[in-house]
Write a structure and sequence with these properties.
This is Cilia- and flagella-associated protein 251. It holds the Pfam family ANAPC4_WD40. It is found in: Cell projection, Cilium. By secondary structure, the chain is mainly beta. Among the domains are: 180 residues, no CATH class; 76 residues, no CATH class; 100 residues, Recoverin, domain 1; 50 residues, no CATH class. Helix content is 13%, strand content 38%. The strands form 15 sheets. A 4-stranded antiparallel β-sheet has the order 1-2-3-4, with no helix packed on it. The protein has a 4-stranded antiparallel β-sheet with strand order 6-9-8-7, with no helix packed on it. A hairpin with a 3-residue loop joins strand 39 and strand 40. The longest helix is centred in the last third of the chain and has 18 residues. The protein starts with 14 loop residues before the first strand and ends in a 19-residue tail after the last helix. About 4% of the residues have low confidence.
Amino acid sequence: IPVRTIFDSHAAGGVTAIAISRDAKYLVTIGAGAVQRVCVWKWTCPAETPVCSAELPRAAARQVSGAAAGPAVLRLHRRLAGASSFQDFVVFNPQNASEFVSNSKSQVIFYLWVSRSGGPQDRPPTGAASPLAPQTFGKAVGHFSQSVFHFNNSQALTGTSAGKLVLWDALRPRPPPREPPPKPHTMKAIKLVPMQKDGITVLTVSDSYFVTCDVKGDVKFYDGQLQLVNWYSHPHVGPIRSISFSKSPPGAATDSAGSCTLGGQPFVVRDFILSTADATVFHVATDGTKYEKLMEEPKRAVTAIACHPGQALVAVGSHCGLLRLWDYEQSTCLVSRIFTEGSIQCLCYSPEGHLLAAGFTDGSVHILHAISLHSVCQEFKFSHGPVTHMSFSHDSEYLATADENLAVTVYRGVVRQGRRRWEHLAGLHAHARRIRSLLFGVRLDGHEPRLLSLAEDRQLVEYDLSSSSKGHLAVLRRDRVEQAAVPLCLAWYPQLGVESFILTANSCYKMKLYNTTTKMCRKTVLGPTYGSPLEKMQILPTTNLTDPQKRYLAYITKDKVGVQVLPVDGNPHKSSAFICHPDGVADLASSYDGRYVFTAGGDDRTVMKWEVNLPALDAAVPLGGQDLEPFYNLLDGGRDGDFFRELEDYFYYAQLRSHGIDTMETRQVSTHIPLEEIPFVMRAMGFYPSEEKIEEMINEVKFSEYVDTGKQVTKINLGDFIKLYINHRPAFGLSMKKIRRAFQVLGYDNENGEKVIDRGDLLLLLQRRGEHMTEEELAACLTTLLGTNPEGGISEPGTCDTSG
C-alpha cells in the first residue's frame, strides 16, 4: 500500500534511477529528460518540492558546477571516462546520507548535499576532474555498470563490462558523517582491479561483503580487500539484472559453508533473490546451492491477450513463445506452454470457450484446447506473414485469420468419422494495405455467419462463406468507407434500436455508424480525443438484466485505455481514458462479464488488469451539462461567444436565402432551415466539406427518422445543426501546416528550389482530379472568393480561361 506519492517529480521524461538512504529518511531520483535533473527528497515531509536538486550538463566538462534549489545545496564532482552520457544508476553512501554516487556507461558522478542551516551557500563551488581513459591504467576499462561505497573507508567502487572494478578514493580525508564538509571531495581512480573475464552487471554490498553478479549468471562474494570468498553458479541462470538480500539475519556459522580462502573460515550470508535478463526470478538459500525458480515471465514483447467467454480466465502470449493461462480473480497461473520455434502474435477464444486459437509471426496457426493448451490438430501454415487478427464464427464452424501479407484465410471445422476436425478452406488477398480488423457476425435474416474485414485501403469487404469452396474464398461486396481518413478499427454495434449498425473509428478521431445491410453511413460523431485515434475497440458484455439497453465500449489508443458510454453522439463527457502503457498498447481484451479490461503493453512485456467503474462514468456524464450544453462548450467562446452568435446569424440568413433574398412577400419565421442549405452554412463557418461529406451529412439527417416513421426529414433546427457541425468538422481544425503540405504535393520545385504551382495547372487540377469541379462551379467559387459575388450564389453564365 503506498504511504506517500510524489507527483510530477520529473515531469520531463519521468524517473530513470532512484535510491533510498540507509536511515530511510531520504530519496534521490534522477530524471530521464534530455537535461537530467538530480533531486533529493525528504519523503516524510508533505512538501512536493525536493530539498535540493541539480541539473547535469549534457556535455562533459573538466570544470563542473552544481545547481542549487530548495532548502539545501547539492554539489557534485564527476569523474569521466569518455563523453558525457545518460546517468541510469544511483546509490547512497550507507555511512553518510548526505553523499551519493551515480553513473552511466561512461561516467561516474559523486554528490554531496549540504543543509542551508549550516550556513548560507549562495553559489555551489566547482571541481576539477580528469578523464579516466584506457591510457590511465594501460588497460581496457569497459562500460560502467553500478557503483557502491566501501563499508570500511572513504573509497568507492564501480563495476565494468570488462569484469573489472574501478577503485576510487578521496584525495583528502573524509570527516565524520555528522560534520559534512563545505566542499565536495575530489575523488580519483587509484586502481583498476581485474576481477573476472565476464562483465559485471550488478555491484552491491551485503553486510561485510562486496557482491558482484555477471552476464553468466554467477554471484560472487568478496571481502573488504577484494579477495574472493565464495560464489554461486547455476547453468540455467542468465545474465543477472538485480539481486536482493533477505532482511532476516544469516544463520549460525555452524550451518554455513566454508569460504574459499586459505583459512577456510565459515561463510555466513543472507538468503537472496535474483532477477535475470530473460525474465526469470530465482530464490537462493545460502545454506545450500539449490536455486528455486519463483517465476518465469515473458522474455520478449507481449502482444496477445484473450479472455475466456465464460470463465475468469485470461490467456497471454508473447514473442518468446510463452503462452500462459491465468485465473485473474485469484491472480494465479493455471497452466503454461512454450512454443520453442514460434512467436505468438494474437489469440482468440471460440464463443463456447472450448478452443483457443493462436496466431504466430511465422504465419502458423495453432488450435488448442482452451484449458490444457494441448493442440487439437496439426498446425496450419497457409499465411505468408505474421498473423495479426483472428476471429471465430458464432457457431465455432469457422475460424478466420488476417496477416501482414494482406491476406484473409478461413479454416472450417468438419466432422469426419465421428470426430471434429479442422481444415483449411481458402484464402484471399482481399486488401491493398494493412488489415486493421477482422470480425464475424450473424445475418439478420438467419443464423448464417458473416465475415467482414477492414483495412487501411479504406475498403470494407464482406465475404460470401456459403458460396466459398475449397481453395476459393468468395467476396459478397466491397464498400469504400472513407474518402480521406484511414479506418483503424471495427466493431458490431449493439442492437439499441430497430436498425442494425457497424461501428468504425478512423484516423481523424471520428466514429461512424454504417447500416449492416446497405453499408450506408448513417451517422458520424466525434470520438474520444486523447492524444491519438482509437486503435482497437470492443463492446463490453452486459450482465445488467434490468436495463439491457445500457451498453459501453472499451477502447485503446496509442498509449491509453478508455471506456465510452453508448449510444455514441459526440458528447466528450461520455468517455474517459487513462495512460496504461506509455510506450504503446499492443492489445485489448474484456472479461466475460464486462467487469475488467486487460491491456498488453508489447515491448514493456506487461499485462495490465483494469477494473471498469461504470457508475462513476455514468455519474460524470451529467456533470458535463444537459441537452446541448456539452456541444456549446465545444464551440469557441461557448454559448455566449462571438462564434455562436455568428453561427446563429448565418443560420437565419440561410432561412432568408432559401425564401429568396429579394422577395417582397411576407416571410414565415421558422426555427429550421432546408437540408440544401447545410453546406452553405458549414462553409460560412470555415468548414469546407467535400461533396461526399456533404452527401453523408444530408443523408444522416434525411434518414434519421425513416426507420421509425417511414418518412424522410427535409429540414434541420439550430440545435441539431450544431451537433452536426461539431461531429463533422475536423477535430482540431484546419491548420496552415496541412494547407502548405497540400500545395507542396501539388507543386514542383523552381530554379531556386522553392515549391511553386502554375495558375493554369491549379485550375486544371481542380477540374480533373479528385472531386473535379465543372467550369461553372469553379467560376462561381473564384468570383465569390474575389468578392465580385459576395452573396455566394451562382454567377451569371460565362467562360473561364484555364490556360493561366
